[in-house]
Design goal:
CATH superfamily of the domain at 1-109: mini-chromosome maintenance (MCM) complex, chain A, domain 1
Helix content: 25-40%
CATH topology of the domain at 1-109: mini-chromosome maintenance (MCM) complex, chain A, domain 1
Number of strands: 23
CATH class of the domain at 1-109: Alpha Beta
Radius of gyration: 31 Å
Strand content: 15-25%
Structural class: alpha/beta
Largest sheet: 5 strands, mixed, barrel
Strand order of the largest sheet: 3-7-8-10-9
Distance between the termini: 76 Å
Shape: elongated
Number of helices: 23
């Protein structure tokens, strides 16, 4: 340490500089070796590390961040000078003018006060002036501007030079001290100061707005939002729709223009550190013992794997009786396939989309809400309450500047977007989601703002048929949805209320026994159902852990089924496009993940075909599929599957290019 230089600094700056040199020499060395002296460089410090090294100092940084973050930046520059002195020869560094210490408080130990991590809606006056961490979703991202930062003044009496910092709270105004701030033993108390020419430092500046996540709020609660100011190296690193964790200083913004008028104070967070949380692994915690349980579960069902699969599916929307096909479709949609890039460099989506068409009272909305709870990031909306701007992105004017505010599909990026009453949307509004579903982007040209936003989201829609469902007519006519939109859904299930007396009797018994657990075998049924938390962890784990690859046998089954459909689908050409082939691959991959495997076998390919056949949007080559509403869990699913597999393979063998029976065994 350069002792002569450090003696001129206050004690706390010395302590902070010593801490940085001791713990962050690698970052300091990297900054010193960077070639651009004018850039603003971040130096990342974990608050937990600071607490371990110097608890009193960490408490001062937490309770008085305005002063101590400035001291930290000064200490970083001194530590940088020491690092430069130690670098010599070929690795000689370049002196930097701006280094900012960024404090990551999000992973700190429990010794931090609870008030450090409130939700946005619970931010209060007591949080003002401390180091605060907020979590939310970016709904608005402003343009990058420049503002005049600190400037240097000199006292006319004693010639002492000092920095004056602008107040962002009062529209960046400068407030001079009432007397000279020199720290001499005999203060001069001068009151006249002159601005030094060329001493103004300019900074990059951006305003964003973050909103608390809707799925953590109760019913009826309105999600609150707060503006956040980003400066220097923090600007332009996040975009609308990103989930973020922001650490900063809470203050209030006000206008100094109105004299003798009591103004409102708008809360605002001046960010010191910001991190994206779109990496989904951090959202759902999966302990090691849970993974051991999953492996043990499949070990127990080694001889009857489909029985194990059905035990998992029973946990999906357990309050709705039966509907096996719908529950399987929900599981496959949430798990999804593997995204890949084709030879031309185009990304082929891995996310599946699901449309549920059904008569009133068939449980569509219940499945939508349950799927939203299972997903770690979800947005629920209805057709009547959704405009194209609300689904995609809207342009808003704030302070004379146009900004983009993210809609439902952008906010659900990386998760699930549920749209109930899909038929209530206007035709123009429905057309806006075409690009979002297939290309997984939204191209915007509004109010002079032209951009593309990411919408890597699963779309789960529910709609009523238009009038009485006519099985003789195409799905497009029955739902009044266009062919191009229907072709984007991997699975379209139709639930028809056919007033079957036997089915009505079974369903009514199930509903009546919901309130009487002792009646019949209800307790035994509940014992076989996976709890919600375990199901949620399982879906998240298999989605992130497995990347299934198709076997030659699975490829053959899928390819021949697709070709057979292309030959026979004269009345529904919009559905049997290459999209159907991609859907089959995605569904087969999702089923392999559901079965805890990294290989797509014939079983997965046949199950994908059965899902497509259940859609009633294709020419049914398997007559035994039946109404999805009346599909139930069978006692022996492996035996039932063997029967269906035999039927499908017989149909496919009639296709002239299909191999003989022995090669399929």
């Amino acid at each position: 340490m350069d002792s002569a230089a450090m003696d001129e600094q206050p004690a706390h700056v010395k302590d902070l500089a010593a801490f940085l040199i001791r713990h962050h020499s690698d970052q300091l060395r990297a900054i010193a070796l960077s070639r651009d002296p004018k850039l603003h460089y971040p130096l990342y410090v974990s608050f937990a590390e600071l607490m371990d090294a110097d608890p009193p100092l960490s408490h001062l940084v937490f309770s008085q961040p305005i002063e101590y973050l400035r001291f930290f930046d000064e200490a970083a520059l001194w530590a940088h000078k020491v690092t430069l002195r130690d670098l010599d020869g070929f690795d000689k560094g370049i002196k930097k003018e701006f280094i900012h210490v960024r404090i990551d408080i999000s992973g700190s130990p429990l010794e931090c006060p609870v008030e450090t991590f409130p939700s946005i809606g619970r931010v209060r006056v007591k949080h003002r002036g401390i180091l605060l961490t907020l979590k939310g979703t970016v709904i608005r991202s402003g343009a990058i501007k420049m503002y005049e930062g600190e400037r240097k003044y000199v006292c006319q009496k004693c010639k002492h030079e000092f920095l004056v910092y602008p107040e962002l709270e009062s529209r960046n105004s400068i407030k001079l001290p009432s007397y000279c701030p020199s720290q001499r033993s005999n203060p001069c108390e001068g009151k006249k100061f002159t601005h030094l020419e060329g001493s103004i430092t300019c900074h990059d500046y951006q305003e964003i707005k973050i909103q608390e996540s809707t799925h953590v709020l109760g019913v009826g609660a309105i999600p609150r939002s707060i503006p956040v100011i980003l400066k220097d190296d923090l600007v332009d690193i996040i975009k609308a729709g990103d989930g973020v964790i922001v650490t900063g200083i809470l203050t209030a913004k006000w206008s100094p223009d109105l004299k003798d008028v009591r103004c409102d104070l708008d809360p605002i967070l001046i960010a010191n550190y910001i991190r994206r949380t779109n990496a989904l692994k951090s959202e759902i915690d999966i302990p090691d013992d849970a993974i051991v349980k999953f492996k043990q579960f499949w070990s127990d069902f080694k001889d009857s794997p489909l029985k194990g699969r059905n035990a998992i599916l029973r946990g999906i929307c357990p309050q709705v009786f039966g509907l096996f096909t719908v529950k399987l479709a929900v599981a496959l949609t949430l798990i999804g396939g593997v995204q890949h890039v084709d030879v031309s460099g185009t990304k082929v989506r891995g996310e599946s989309h699901f449309l549920l068409v059904g008569d009133p009272g068939t449980g569509k909305s219940q499945f939508l809400k349950f799927a939203a709870k299972l997903s770690n990031r979800s947005v629920i909306t209805t057709g009547l309450g959704s405009t194209s701007a609300g689904l995609t992105v809207t342009a808003v004017k704030d302070g004379g500047e146009w900004m983009l505010e993210a809609g439902a599909l952008v906010l659900a990026d990386g998760g699930l977007c549920c749209i109930d009453e899909f038929d209530s949307m206007r035709e123009h509004d429905r057309a806006t989601i075409h690009e979002a579903m297939e290309q997984q982007t939204i191209s915007v040209a509004k109010a002079g703002l032209v951009t593309t936003l990411s919408t890597k989201t699963i779309v789960f829609g529910a709609t009523n048929p238009k009038g009485q469902y006519d099985p003789d007519q195409s799905l497009s006519i029955n739902t009044a949805l266009s062919g191009p939109l229907l072709s984007r859904f991997d699975i379209v299930l139709v639930l028809l209320d056919t007033k079957n007396p036997e089915w009505d009797g079974v369903v009514s018994s199930h509903i009546l026994s919901e309130g009487e657990p002792d009646k019949g075998n209800h307790e035994e049924d509940l014992a076989n159902i996976w709890p919600f938390s375990m199901l949620r962890r399982y879906i998240h784990f298999v989605k992130g852990y497995f990347r299934p690859v198709l076997t030659k046998e699975a490829e053959m089954v899928i390819s021949n089924y697709y070709q057979l459909q292309r030959r026979s689908a004269t009345g529904n050409a919009a559905r049997t496009t290459v999209r159907m082939l991609e859907s089959l691959i995605r569904l087969a991959q999702a089923h392999a993940r559901l079965m805890f495997r990294n290989e797509v076998t014939r079983l997965d390919a046949i199950t994908a075909i059965l899902c497509i056949e259940s859609s009633m949007t294709t020419s049914a080559i398997v007559d035994s599929v039946g109404n999805a509403l009346h599909s139930n869990f069978t006692e022996n699913p492996d035996q039932e599957y063997a029967k269906q597999e035999r039927l499908i393979l017989e149909k496919l063998r009639s296709f002239d290019e299909f191999p003989d029976t022995n090669s399929m065994q």
